[in-house]
Structures are given as C-alpha cells and as structure tokens.
Design goal:
By secondary structure, the protein is mostly helical. The protein has a single domain, classed as Orthogonal Bundle (MetI-like fold), CATH 1.10.3720.10. Helices cover about 80% and strands about 0% of the residues. The protein has eleven helices and no strands. Helix 3 packs antiparallel against helix 8. It is globular. It starts with a helix and ends with a helix.
C-alpha cells in the first residue's frame, strides 16, 4: 500500500513537472513559430512606422528605461524596509499589520495602480504622461514583491550566523552587511528577478501613465510606449499576431539578459564579501 502511494505521488510530481514544461515550451514555441520571421536588424534597431515596415527600437529603449528607473528606486527601499521589519523592528501587532498591508498590495489589480499614478504622478505632481510617471507607478507595484521576498530570504539565514558574528566583536550593522545580506542574496535576487518580470509584463498601468507615443524618448519626462503596450496596440490596430509574437521574442531576450546580468552581479557581490 505504501509503495502504491509512493508511486502515485511520484507520478503526480512528474506529471506536474511535465505539464509545466510543456506549457512553457508551447508558449515560447508558438511565439517563435509566429514571430521569428519578423526578426531582423531593421526590426530591432529601426524607428517605428505607422504604415508598416518599421522597427521597435524606441519601445525597447522605453522598456529598458522603465526597468532601470523602477529598480533603482524600488530595490533599496524594499530591501531596507525588509531589513527593518525583520532585523530591527519589535515583532508585534504593528509589524503584523504592515506585513498584512504589504501582502494585500500584491493582490491589487494593476489598473488600480495605473489610475492612482494617472491622478497622483501625472496630474497632481504635474509630471505628465511620461516615463518617470510610469516608472514611479511601477515602483509602487513591485515594492511589495521585493519587501516580502527579502524578508523571507532574511528568515532563511541561520541564527548561528548572527550569533557567531556578534561573538567575534562586530557590530549589528557590520553583521548585517557582511554576513546576513550576502547569505540572503540569492533570495533577494529572486525578488528582483520577479520584479523585472512584473515590470516588463505591465501594460495597463503604463498605458495610463506613460502614454502611447511611438517615438524615441528624448528624456525620462517624455511620453512613450513600452514593448508590452506596443504589442497590445499593434494587435488592436492591425490584428498582426506575427508582429506581436516577434515583440514577445524580443521581450524574452531582454528578460533573460537582465536576469543573467543580475545573477552575475550577485555572484561578484558574494565573492567580494567572502
């Protein structure tokens, strides 16, 4: 009976893994099947043309702008907030309320964030439809992800690491940035990678805060459109699924490149501290 249960459980695990991989391969394969023929030097590095035959380079630049600006703002704030909640704050009702609020923010639809950004950043702060307004909105969206993943990463660091470091005469701050943070870096990096995916995948919030201008942005205060918004608008305007799939391929490459870069930086950081 026990062997039967073990075999059944193993079959379920393998089946779940197979379904997950099959879905991923199907989606990526469909994108390459539909859109690979559109990929060319002119398509990637050319300017957009509303009459067809143009490129997507302005949208690539806008997407990279939003990723970099959002992470530059959200990453230090999220990590510091998580460090305070986990390492310094007295665990009690207030901390539980903050954690509950943070978890609740992750479930709010992005259109709500977009409406808030359109009212607060675009109208009240008078930033207008711009990359910086969209980036600030995206910062609010990914901040709960970074805080929660960093908190969970800090919890995985054994208490003996802290005790051993303090016993050697280091201060709590030195223990934090010499021992705890490097040990928690893989988990923190996971949160940053998830945030990159969330930023790249957003369309509604960006649509309401950055606009839809398909031109090379002159600065972060220019109105522009990201690859995700461009993919949606192209599909709506012309119904060209192949072009949208080609944009999806470019997005996959950008995400992979950024994830590999983040992993490389994390490894260098760990080597520097040990």
């Amino acid at each position: 009976m026990r062997q039967t249960k073990d075999h059944l459980l193993r079959a379920m695990l393998w089946g779940s893994a197979f379904v997950s991989v099959a879905v991923l391969v199907t989606i990526v394969g469909y994108l390459f099947y539909k859109g690979f023929s559109y990929i060319s030097f002119d398509f990637i590095f050319g300017d957009y043309s509303p009459v067809g035959g143009g490129g997507i380079f302005p949208m690539i630049v806008t997407t990279i702008y939003t990723i970099i600006i959002s992470l530059i703002i959200a990453t230090p704030i999220g990590i510091l907030a998580a460090v305070y909640l986990q390492e310094y704050a007295k665990q009690g009702r207030l901390v539980r309320i903050i954690r509950y609020a943070t978890e609740s923010l992750t479930g709010i639809p992005s259109i709500i964030y977009g409406l808030f950004g359109a009212v607060f950043f675009v109208a009240i702060l008078k930033l207008g439809m711009s990359i910086i307004a969209a980036s600030l909105t995206l910062t609010i969206i990914v901040l709960p992800v970074i805080i929660r993943t960093t908190e969970e990463a800090l919890k995985t660091v054994p208490a003996s690491y802290r005790e051993g470091s303090l016993a050697l005469g280091t201060t709590k701050l030195q223990t934090l940035y010499k021992v705890i943070l490097p040990s928690a870096m893989p988990g923190i990096l996971s949160g940053i990678i998830l945030s990159i995916g969330r930023i790249v995948g957003e369309s509604a919030a960006i649509f309401l805060t950055a606009g839809t201008v398909a031109a090379m942005p002159e600065s972060i205060f220019s109105s522009a459109r990201t690859l995700t918004v461009h993919s949606y608008l192209v599909t709506q305007e012309s119904g060209d699924i192949g072009l949208a799939a080609a944009i999806g391929i470019v997005l996959i490459v950008i995400i992979l490149a950024l994830n590999l870069s983040a992993t490389y930086i994390s490894k260098k950081f760990n080597k520097a501290d040990y």
